[in-house]
Each structure stands twice: as C-alpha cells, then as structure tokens.
Amino acid sequence: MSRTAIGNWLAAPIVAAIATICLAPLAILFLFSFFSVDFVNIVKEPTFKNYWTIASSSTYRGLIAQAFLSALVVVCITGVIGHPVAYFIAKRVKSAKSAFLVLLLVPLYTGDLVRIFAWRVLLGTEGALNTLLLWVGVIDVPIEALLFSPLATHVVLVYNFLPFMVLGLWLSYESLDDHLLEAAGDLGASGMSAFRRVTFPLTAPGLIAGGLMVFVMAVGEYLTPQLVGGASGITIISAINDLFGTAFDWPLGSAIAWTMLAILGFFFAASAVVLGRTNWARAVVGGE
Amino acid sequence: MQSIPNKQPLNGGRRPSATLLRANQLKKSYGSFEAVTGVDFDLEENSYVTLLGPSGCGKTTILRMVAGFETVTSGELELSGQSLVNVLPNERPINTVFQNYALFPHMSVAENVAFGLAYGQFSKDEIAQKTHAALELVQMSAMADRRPRQLSGGQQQRIAFARAVVNEPKILLLDEPLSALDRRLRKDMQIELKDLQQRLGMAFLHVTHDQEEAFALSDKIIVMNKGRIEQQGTPAQIYRQPANAYVADFIGGANRIAGRMSEVANGVGVIETGLGKYRAKCAKGLSAGAPAVLCLRPEQLCPTQADGLELQVTHTIFQGADWIVEARARDDTTVTYLAPKSRLPLIGETVAVGFDAETAWIAANPHEGAA
Amino acid sequence: MKNRMTRRSLLQTLCGATALGSLGAMPSLAGSNEFVWMTWENLAKDDYLAKLLAASPIDLRKNFIGTDDEQFAKLRAGGASSVDLITPGLDKVEFYVESGLLQPVDLDRVPNAAALYDTFRNTPLGKKNGETYGVPFYWGINPIVYRADLMDGEPDWSVFFEGDKHAGKLAMRDYALEGIMIAAMYLGIPQDRMFHMDDAELGEVKKALIAQKKKLRTYWNSISDLTNLFASGEVVCAFSWVPPYHELRARGLEMGMALPEAGVIGWCDTVAVPAGVEGQKLEVAHDLINYLLGPVYGEKLAYGGPYATSTSLIRDQLPLDQQEKIFVKDLSIMDTFVWKQNPPRYNEWVALWNEVKAS
To answer: Is ipTM > 0.85 here?
Structure first.
C-alpha cells in the first residue's frame, strides 16, 4: 500500500465524521421540511405544503429576496472599501503589517452586541454623530434615520464584515506583482485604468473569497437588523427563529431554511459556471 | 530558438546622432542613502546604450527614473528638450521590458501585446494589425492565443519585448531582459535584440550587470559604481582605455599594478610601481604624482626570456580554448595571463612574462585600495 | 419572563429540533441525588432557596433557560428525563401537556396551594381533565411604561395606533401573542373572543398593526435593551415590562407606568413536573413546589423581584407600598388583567405578525 493510500485511509474516519456532523442536521431539516404540524404534533406524512406556503406568501418571498439583496449590497460596499484598505496594508505598510492586521481584526474580538451598542451610541438621536452635526450646525434637528433604519443595519453590517473582505483581498494583493502595475502604467494606463484592467481581475480571487464569506454571513445575519434596523428589522432568519421557537412550526421553518440553502447553492453554482466561462477567471483562479 | 536573419550589418546603417534623452546632475536619494549621486549622460537617437554595473550600483534606479516609476530627487531629466520630471509614467513615450517580463497572467499573448494600444487613437482593426505585426516581429504569431504561463522564458521575453515596442516608444528601456535566460539562449537573444534595435530605429536604454552583453549590444556603455558613473564610452574605449582601476577590473578582469605617475606628456606617461617603471599610454586627467594603475589584460601578457615580470605560478585554470595561469609577483600582486599553447607551467614554477608597451594602458586609481 | 432572541437561543432551538429527529429519550445523566430545576436565573437565587436547602439534603442543580420556547424545544428533543422540575408559562403548559411531557401535580402534597389566589385556583389554564399540570407560581403584568417628562399625560393603547405626536418614539415588544392581544384590546374585541378571532377580526388587527408599525422606532427584544432606549430618549413610550420603570426611576428619570382600562396583559409562570419523575425525586419536587408557594420564598421574591407569588401567604405581612409595587394591594385589579392564553390558531398569529413586520 502506498503512503498516499495509507494517508487516505487514516483520513477517512475524520472526513466521514465531519461529513456526518455537517450533513446530518441538514438532512434532518430536509426531512422535516416535508412534514406538517398539528398543534404540538409533527405529522410525518410527506407533503409539499410548506414549500407551497413559502412560494405563495409574499412575506416570505419578500424576506428571502431582501436577505439576498441586502447581502449583495453589503458585499459590494465592503468590496469598494476593502480594495483600498487591502492595497494599503499589502503594498504601503512595510514594518507594522501584522499590527495593522491585528488592528483590523480587533472589532471581531469584541462581541456582536458590544459592536452593535457602540454603533447605537454613535448613530442615535442623541448620539455622537447627531450631536456633532448639530453642534457644527449642518442640521437643526437630529437625523432620526441614522439609527433604527435599513441604513443603520447596512452600516453596521459593513463594519462587521469588512475585516473578512479585507483579509480575502489582502491575500490577493500580497501575491500581486507590483511590476504588473508598473507595466500597466508604463503602457499608458492611468491609475483607474490599471485598476480596472490589471488589479481588479488579478485580485478577483480575493474578492470572490472575501465576498462569499461576507455574503453568507450577511444572509444569515439577524441580530444586527433586529437591534439597529428598527421596526423594519425583520429578517428571514428571525422569521425562521419565530417558526421554530414561538410557533412550533418546525416543518415550515425547515422548509424556509432549505429554500435559503437551495438558493444559496444555486447562486454559487451559477457563479462558478459563469466564472468558469470567462478566460480571465480560468487563468486567475485555475492557474492556467 | 532561431534568430532573425541579420539583414543589416551590426552598427551599420544610421549612426547615432541627435540627443534624445539627457540626464543632468540626476540624483535619487532614499533618506540619507544616495542611490544615484548626480549623474550626467546622454542617450542619442537610434542608439543602443547600456548601463553596466554590479547590483546596487544605481543603474536600475536610473532606468526607473526614466520610466517614471521613481521620482527624481534633484537634477534634470529631459526628453527632446522637455523635462520629464513631473510627467507620469503613462504619459511618457517610453516603454519598458521588465526583468521578470511582468506579463499580465490573466490575458492572452495577443491581449498583452495590445494592452498599450488601447490608449492610442486606434481602431479595432488597427490594433489587431499592429498586434499581429509586433508578434511577427518577434516570431510569436503562433502563440497569440496562449497565456504567458504556458510559454518558456525566452518566449515570454519576446512577448514582453513586443508588448513594449508595439507602442512605438521614443525610448525602449530594458531592465536586465536576458538575465533569466540560459547562456545559449542569451547569446541568440543578444544578436536578435541588436538587430531589432537597428530595424526599429529606436533608442534602447539597457540595464545589465553582464559585460559581455553590454559589449555585444551597445553603441555606448555607461559603467556605474556606487551611484556614480565611472566611465562612459564605446565598448572599445571602455575595454582598451579604462578610465580608472575600477573599470579596468570590472571590465575583463585586467591585471592592475598599482603605482604613481612620475611623468605625463601627450597621452603617454610613466608609472612607478613596486615592480618597476613602465611607460605606456595613459588616461586623461592623470598628472605627475597621481595614484594610478598599470592595466594589463591577460591576453596582453606572454612569457618572455628577458626583462619581464618575475612571477611564481599559483594556479592553472582550464577554460576550454585556453589555460589561464594565475601567478604572484614579488610584491604579492596577483597576475593572470594566458598560458602559451606550447607549454603549461607547473605550479610553483617561476616564470617571466612581458608585454608590448604599445598596448598597455595606465588608468587612474582614485579610490586607492577600493578597486 | 426574559424572552430575548439571542444567537445561542436560536442555536439551541435548532439543536433541539435536530436532536428530536435523531434521538429518542436520553437516559438521565443526573446522579441519583441530583435534583434538576429548569428555571429563570432570577428565580433561583441562593438566598431565596437557602431555608429549604438548609432543612433538607437536596443536591439542587439549576438549569437556566433563555426563553420559554427554548425550554419547550429542549424537552421535546428528549431532555425531559434529565430534569425534575420545569418552569413553563401558564399559557404554554398546554403545549407540554399535549406533547405528553408532564405528569399531574398532586396538590394534596402541596399544602401551600390551598392559599392560591382565586384567579389562579380557578383558571382553566395549566389544567386538563380536572388535573393540575402547571402550578401557578409567580405572576405580574406587562404595562405601558413611558417617560413622564416627555409626555403630556398618561397614555393608553391608542398611543400606539393613533396620532403622530409620538410617532417614531414608540416601541413594541417583538412578540406575536402580545402584539396581537394589544391590537385586539385597542379594537375593543372582548376578552372571551380575543383568542378565537375570526378572519375578519384578524384582518382588522393586521390593518391596525401595520398602521402601528409606521409609528414605531423599533420592536424590542430584550428588556435591558428597552431600558437603554428609554434612558437615551430614543423611545418615550413602550409596551413594556415593569422592571425598566423601577430601574429608571431609581436612576432619577421621571418614569410613568400606565395600566390601560381596555385591559392589561397579565402573565404567570408555573412549575410543572416532567412525566418521568418518580420516587424520591417526586417527593422533592412537591417539597420544592410547596416552598415556592410559601411565605419565605414569597417574601424574598416580593422584594427581590419585585414580583408577587400566586398565594396570599405573605401579602398581609408586606407594607402597603411594597404591596402596591407588586399589584396585590387592591386584589380586585387582578380581575381586570387579561391573562395570556395560547390561541388555537397561533401559527396564523405568528404568520400575521411576521407579515406586519415585513410590510
């Protein structure tokens, strides 16, 4: 038996265990999504009723769409902010690079709630930002929409997830050869043009990696919308939570969870196919 | 790898003429470190000029200032009389062949070559046509759809060249373009580069640490050391009449016998050394009393019966066509020479070598001991 | 009565759900002498229980819960055999009973139960076929709390539905049952119909709640969060619990508490014994229930909560202002409370609530 084969055999139980641990709950949820509920009893007769409920409910459809759209917005914004930050850390910072990375991650060490409440202090009606604006005289009355609004939700989500985007991009920038940017400038490209034609496509793997992380986390986020999103802070995730907890409708909750998973899977598969068709993606990601 | 048939004689055709690029007291410092100490040189139209020196001598810094990648600390850099100092790299009619080629990995060969054409006023057809012509020029048309990573080093080098010249720059900068190639390929590419320069009628500014490469290619060589220019001139001048001990050593490994000038007149001087007094042609600027070195190329020395340098053989080194003999003079100066075909001396043997005063050369020795 | 949706609670609920599918009843992991009480952290403080524990050698283990839903999910997922006493809401006991998770409590073995206030003795909630499954244990109300310094007069439910004076400064709890009950009370739907509303009535409720949503600053999920919102002035008036009123008054804010005439939501938690508990542990369970209904614990909770227990055993020993604080000074007020019940169409209520929030 070759060494590789032995290695494979040794790894097999671990792979199997991880697969089981990861997949078993999903499989059970999947099973549940075809059941129905009668008061406190789960009726184990297969039905598509739950999926039909989701498809025919404008509330659930809307919440699902909102989750994905909102996550997309967060990915875009973190991407736009992440590029210069990652560039700065990778290419401009020489000696204190690790310090900058640690600094970037510091917000992650504090809890969700700490960060959210910090933002409340900043954005509230009597918060720091409104106080400052009033003092400067830019506004006469506090801007209430700064907090408890979709705006606030997205600001906090961007703040929370930016480090993941930056980390992804940073790795790409680290491996980006400076000479390529010089070459682009040398050949006549302005800064913007060089970014568009060279930097952006070559750091795309980082953008995709960071973007996927941010996207998945933003889709699953409910605490931030709940605590700073105001009356519109409902998310599909908190609806699932309501169904599992308050309403004891595990089958419908499972069905929504699986609908989300399926859409997410479709998203990834579709983007993989689209990316696989473009030349630069094959070259950059596939190392062709 | 085949080279393009040489349709014109080397150094033939048009001779270098009007000044295209002029550096005047060009200086670059990083904090207190002066990478380039304030140099003057000209690059003539249609000339092939090489910046030659060891790593860290400032030659690449000069190239990068010309390209615009580095700012100029002080001094002037002019292209056709216009200052380049505040012109962005993308606005200079200058293109670069990078040492590692810096081809865009996410683009095909043709897309790489066409990259710069997007910034000119060209139609799609014109771009395609120019790209094709540039690939033809470097005999890479067949590779147009490949990716850089699928090409060999030599092929990538050609693409990098095509990508730069397709923009018809006034000056082409080459940063150690051949250093990553193996020796055999390097020789071929040297011939080809020179040929292309002639055919394109473009001024090339080439950075290298390889003196052979510099000799093979250049109309003018600028020898650099520690941010200074030690000497600039034609390859023949540099080789035969090194300005100082550093150049003499760096170029061709001349034997140097240190001493002091005792008399100088009409380009001929007498140097007094620990091994005796010698009369030979001498470099400009030497005066009586100045420290100097007598430069003797290994091939200028041959065994003699009388009145030669007395040496004790320490090593003999086989170099294919020749044996090199390394020997020590009585003042411990190491001297190398080509062994005669007839007989190889034994190690430890005492030999006497002589030289023709007509071919010897006395160079300055400004950095006594440093060289 | 802390009902905060935290990440952990979501996780626990989901874990419970998955475990239910994969596992049967788990064997008890607790040792023979350990007695496990699943309860709220503020009910099981050491000094509340000191007297009982000094008298009998119980190895009492407390298993704290985050939400009632979480407690139910845990038991449904097979956790019933590892706990010996649980603390479900009076309106939720039905869930546990119908799921077969509880055994009836023998009130003869709980002498202090004789002193239950009539309201709790007579309630149909927590009972089935004449047997008591959840023994009412302590209770309170969820009133309107407001910043008296920032409002003109005492508000009633209409403040959440009419006018724009305080629009953008109001908050409601993010909880379907209470949210819909309040809308029903505002709309004048009588108590006996409230939990059995038909489609037309639910439609009216939904309309009212959608109008309400536009006036809200936010829905609150944790009482400490709401307290902060009051303190920072983000919210001037909210459907609340009692604690922020006391807490913020103690911090010097001029707070008001309103009990609307249309009805005040009353809540009550019970103690209940899981189905498998027997022998020595069943004895202990009855002893503990009896202690919880008794005067020692009642006094501790009256000051510490401050909450009233369900028996009259301590009331008369309390000074009047403390009686007032826990709503037992005038006992007839209890009859005006609308006790939370579990509506038969609760799933539709939750769906309706989500539709309102997503509108």
So the answer is: no
